[in-house]
Amino acid sequence: MTTVLITGATSGIGAAFADRFATSGCDLVLVARDKERLDRKASDVRTRWGSTVEVLAADLIDPPECRRVEERLAMSESPIDILVNNAGFGLPAPFPHSPVEDEERMLDLLVRAPLRLSHAAIPGMTARRRGAIVNVSSVAGLLPTGTYGAAKAWITAFSESLRVDLAPYGVRVLALCPGFTRTEFQERAGMDVSSVPSWAWLDADPVVDQALKDLRRNRPVSITGWQYKAYAMAARHLPRRVAAKMARSRKPPESS
Ligand code: NAP
User: Fold this and answer.
1) Any atom of ligand 1 within 6 Å of the Cβ of 60
2) Which of 10, 119, 189, 226 is deepest in the core (most CB within 10 A)?
3) DSSP H or E stretch at residue 172
């Protein structure tokens, strides 16, 4: 039986991962802060697919709470086969106008937590010579798009290098880079997305389906949708100076 630990599993992309893994017969460990919502999600998954579901209420920004999740990842009984580092949020204002405490909290959730959780999960995965880590990044990490984009650039680069380190042990690593996806993300960040055209929006289910397909094919990065494949291609091939200008002159994906 495969057991999957998903952070931020109560909403949006994380909740879609929980449903997809449960449908394919996996057991789950769901992590988020809101315990009631976690319990509701767990009971829904148990009823619909009969999976075994544990819940771990933890604020991953808080080091002692993050450590409880690390301890679960390091356990040898009911070991975790797949870790999905998904929990995240964005900020409404650019760096110069954003309280430094908020910036630090965002960096802790988008960078420090996945770093620590991956570090806790890896020894068991390499010893068992199987496993996978899916890091939810963003197309915002492909171009200079503020501190959110910088954190997402870090997680993509981290994933691609970890993938090389873990390949000899049969452990896969995937960076998932969604574009604008209909979840609670934008509302929680207080972003005005009224000017985002309808063609730019993705749903969480196809994003997760594509990620699981790319994980099976052992691809390094997963991008859903022709519009974001074109964006990624432009980011890769345009001269950096032009790309940086393009990123600054347009509202970057999912940030203001
Ligand atoms: P969402 O619907 O707002 O879900 C966020 C999830 O993270 C919730 O389950 C939330 O539950 C949990 N969470 C938030 N802060 C947490 C914390 N401190 N500790 C533990 N859990 C926490 O957002 P989403 O769009 O699905 O976002 C998932 C990932 O996709 C994020 O990494 C985001 O950066 C990335 N992404 C999103 C988009 C987009 O357009 N939606 C695009 C590209 C990338 P609690 O509040 O109960 O903790």
Assistant:
1) yes
2) 10
3) strand 171-176
Quote the CA–CA distance of 45 and 22 in Å, as a whole number.
7
The two three-digit tokens of residue 149, written as one number? 């984009």
What domains does the chain contain, in order, with CATH numbers?
3-248 (3.40.50.720)
Per DSSP, the three-state class of 135 is: strand
pLDDT in tens, 143-175: 988 999 999 999 999 999 999 999 999 999 999
For ligand 1, say whether the CB of 34 is within 6 Å of any of its atoms. yes
Query: Which residues of 26-167 form beta strands (DSSP E)?
Result: 27-32, 53-57, 82-85, 131-136
Helix (H, G, I), strand (E, B) or coil at 9: coil
Total-model pTM: 0.96
Q: Which residues are catalytic?
A: 148
